Amino acid sequence: xxxxxxxxxxVEDRIQQRLLARYREMMHKAIDDFVDALAEDLVSEKKMTLxxxxxxxxxxxxxxxxxxxQESIQTKHGGILSQxxxxxxxxxxxxxxxxxxPRTIETVLGPATVTRPYFYCASCKxxxxxxxxxxxxxxxxxxxxxxxxxxxxxxxxxxxxxxELFFKSTGLSFSDHQMHDLFAQFAEETTAEAVIPSAAEIxxxxxxxxxxxxxxxxxxxATDGAHTPTRPRGEGRDxxxxxxxYKEAKGFRLYLIDDDRIVHIASxxxxxxxxxxxxxxxxAASRIPQKKVRPCLVGDGxx
Length: 303
Fold this sequence. Notes:
Elements: H1 2-43, H2 50-76, H3 78-81, E1 85-87, E2 94-107, E3 110-121, E4 126-128, H4 130-135, H5 144-154, H6 159-170, H7 176-189, H8 192-195, H9 199-207, E5 218-230, E6 245-257, E7 262-271, H10 274-286, E8 294-299
Parallel strand pairs: 5-8
Antiparallel strand pairs: 1-2, 2-3, 3-4, 5-6, 6-7
């Protein structure tokens, strides 16, 4: 038994070494291609400023990063990417692979293509790819890292300006329309637990503000509500939206008043019940070190 275990470990070690050797080979090739893309300009008599050099590197970088990403995925998940049989998630029947389907994705490293096995259950009329779940792929072309970056821009900027800065920082387009759809999806799926900062982060923000003399800084808790028009989405992308109606959006904002600035602590606004608002506000209150602040309550609303 011990010899069999040692033989198995030896086989696994040889497989890992072969994978690593292949990975190194592909990385060297990717670097060689990157150098070739830059070499002619860098070794010629052509004048190049620092900006010219950085732009040349930026132009060649996406292909390098795409190659690194694709080979890293292949090395880490080669087994699932070469899968021949999979269980239908509906009827649990074993299904043979229909095709290897390429899918183009975009990440903070740039665009890349992932070729993964695709399965189709004729009985259930359901197509699926287990690799998508293993890799944690988003149903959108832009993956979760880019969506997170887009939401960070949207937290402080209008849709159009967020779209412009997103392109400048990543080289990938994210139209204001796509930004709006992303924000709408995020708003539908998010929770107060995820939006309200942690107790440690709130305390850190409070510590950046000093009250006058020995007095604690003022923490304003403002609640408000207003009727807002809503329309349900159509089932398909080109389907018309449903009839509109007004619903009440409720929310609160917590902020500190400093001498010449306002320091944001937390906020939460959503169409919902008074009970849901109370629950979110209670969660925020539980994360505030109340001995470090002087609370000030402000209420507002609309008929």
